[in-house]
Specification:
Layout (H helix, E strand, L loop, with lengths): L25 E5 L12 H7 L14 H7 L4 H12 L2 H9 L4 E7 L18 H15 L2 E8 L23 H20 L6 E5 L14 H18 L21 H8 L7 H21 L2 H5 L11 E5 L19 E6 L12 H9 L3 H6 L6 E5 L10 H15 L4 E4 L16 H4 L1 H7 L29
Parallel strand pairs: 1-2, 1-8, 2-3, 3-4, 4-5, 5-6, 6-7, 7-8
Helix pairs in contact: 4-5, 6-7, 6-9, 7-9, 8-9, 11-13
């Protein structure tokens, strides 16, 4: 085995923060509640499936995990129906016509089914088939995709539907669950380069919304480093050039027609940490299973491989997402890297709850500059929307949409949450969709048909350099 690899060198220099072949500006939407279902976004469908509604999501059937435990015999069928209908080819056509060039795809760790410990974890099976189909549609439409690890093994944040298991017992920040997340990363990186349906993928996000208090996320910085190295190890095994890196890896001719064998060999490269080596090795049998299930066996095991695509963008929530001495993901960059910030005024803590305060805050936003000062650039805003803490008039929502788009476009761009929400009696008709659905916002005119356009390019002029009570500019 030692003769298969040669000349592996790792550079500690910081890398360029840009990547080739992507749009100059991201205009995107999230595909939320598709492969990680959040019942608040589709309450009637959730009840029809057999779910429940409750004030505290841990107290009833309000997540994928609790649903799977309650209905072990029918969960896969029920979710297949949801996956088949929530995001469709018609949606892709509509998004393309609306000028959307990027989607962020929230995923649970259970999309890689072998990572689920069925002794105490329950989730629906079969999602990978629908992910592959959806990514194929996006590829054909010319829309690029970010694979967002939205729901992590062990749960990364307490009390949230979006983690797939609403619980106060946060266990992600442990060696066992860090390992499972790294294996997930190796599998998704491989699929992104070798599965033709994944050709739309340009970035993988390490973790969605970790706990903000960095003292509660032990060894998260080490995980960030290992996440980057897993992606680059897979790419170097494939012979893909990683910009701004001095990695060098040679693959023996004896395994040059068998990627899984070559990845197994790479797992012995001591330049990588033991955690990275273990993740690469454990990804191999999972890839073999996926190869058989998805008709990729020849690609994985019996085809020459080489420089298929550019290196992926490693994507992190920005360092300023956390407080109390957080680790900076910029410190571990190897190859292209980008950063994600989420900004919702409706949850409070950003500006006083009135239209003028909102406008002053967003029009004087400094997050892009603050992140750039610590190397977190390019930055996109991966979640935002039109919801407010007050009853917003239509007139205000035109301004609110314009001002946010204007602010976020000073960075790498924006990705709206969400592409759609349910419209039913349980959502008071279109009341929920009015401020949370991009497609409804288009229909109502708050959002422009051309995502680069604004109703009023001077929307922020009256508010520039003003001050108001704010806790999170």
């Amino acid at each position: 085995m030692k003769h298969i690899l040669a000349g592996v060198v790792l550079s500690s220099t910081l890398v360029a923060r840009a990547w080739a072949g992507q749009p100059d500006q991201i205009y995107g939407v999230n595909l939320g509640s598709w492969l990680v279902l959040e019942p608040w976004m589709l309450p009637q469908e959730w009840l029809d499936m057999g779910g429940q509604s409750c004030a505290v999501c841990a107290s009833c059937i309000a997540t994928e995990s609790s649903f799977a435990k309650a209905y072990p015999d029918t969960v896969d069928t029920k979710f297949a129906q949801h996956w088949d209908t929530w995001f469709t080819q018609d949606d892709v056509n509509t998004l393309k016509a609306a000028g959307i060039n990027t989607v962020r795809v929230p995923l649970g760790y259970w999309i890689v089914e072998a990572l689920v410990d069925r002794s105490h974890e329950s989730y629906p099976r079969g999602g990978l088939e629908y992910l592959r189909r959806g990514l194929g549609w996006l590829k054909d439409a010319g829309i690029q995709a970010i694979l967002d690890h939205h729901a992590l093994p062990g749960v990364q944040t307490p009390g949230q539907m979006f983690t797939g298991n609403c619980t106060t017992e946060v266990q992600f920040y442990t060696p066992y669950n860090y390992h499972r997340a790294l294996v997930w990363t190796a599998v998704m990186t491989t699929l992104s380069h070798l599965d033709p349906n994944f050709e739309s993928v340009f970035a993988i996000e390490a973790i969605n919304e970790p706990i903000m208090n960095a003292t509660l996320t032990p060894n998260y910085g080490t995980f960030q480093k290992n996440f980057v190295e897993v992606i680059r190890a897979v790419e170097l095994t494939l012979g893909i050039f990683v910009p701004s890196s001095r990695f060098s890896l040679s693959v023996s001719a004896s395994v040059s027609n068998n990627f899984t064998a070559a990845l197994s060999a790479t797992s012995s490269a001591t330049i990588f940490s033991t955690e990275v080596q273990a993740a690469l090795l454990d990804a191999v049998p999972i890839l073999l299973e996926i190869g058989v299930a998805c008709g990729l066996q020849t690609i994985f095991e019996a085809s020459p491989f080489g420089k298929f695509r550019d290196s992926l963008v490693a994507n992190f929530m920005d360092v300023n997402w956390q407080y109390d001495n957080p680790s900076n993901p910029a410190d571990v960059a190897i190859g292209p890297q980008a950063y994600d910030n989420h900004l919702y005024y409706s949850f409070g803590g950003v500006a006083a709850a009135d239209p003028k305060s909102y406008m002053i805050s967003i029009c004087n936003l400094t997050r892009i500059q603050a992140d750039a000062a610590v190397g977190n650039s390019p930055l996109w805003f991966g979640e935002w929307g039109l919801p407010t803490q007050f009853n917003a008039t239509d007139e205000f929502l035109y301004q609110w949409a314009d001002a946010q788009k204007l602010a976020y476009s000073k960075g790498a761009g924006w990705i709206f949450w969400n592409f759609k929400t349910e419209i039913s009696s349980l959502t008071n008709g279109s009341a929920l969709a009015r401020q949370w659905s991009y497609l409804e916002g288009l229909k109502l005119g708050f959002l422009t048909q051309d995502p680069a356009a604004l109703h009023d390019p001077n929307v922020c002029v009256p508010y520039m350099n003003s001050t108001t009570h704010s806790t999170g500019s």
